[in-house]
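Table S2 (text version). Query chain:
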Amino acid sequence: MRNNLKNYPKIHCINSALSNYDGETYISNLGASSSLFNRKEGSLDKKISVVSFSTFVKEQNFETIDFVKMNIEGSEYELLEEIIESGNILKITHLQIQFHNFVENATEQRKNIRNKLKKTHVNIFNFPFIWERWDIKNDK
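Corresponding structure-token output:
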């Protein structure tokens, strides 16, 4: 990735996954479908560094974030909870999420997160468990 983006000085690659905590975990090696969840398609066999969204925002000194695209193979639920509970959701102007339904209680978890997002953002489009987009409310 660094090599592909070397001609773009405003893009910085950080060798860490965003999560709801700081530390280390294991990820499966499934290419674009790699996940932090045990799945029949692959085992958790590669150790990686994770950083919480709050830590990342603080370290990068972000006041606002124009766009977040989240397709993180089941980890979106924990990450979104952390973003919302920390108040960092108010820094995100546009949020595009792919919720995954292989996670336990995915439908209920998605519903709860969507209800929380409605307080700060408006749903622009919604294709359940495919893609949905949320934009910050103008009055926020």
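Notes on Table S2: Residues 106-117 form the longest helix (12 residues). The chain has a mean pLDDT of 88.
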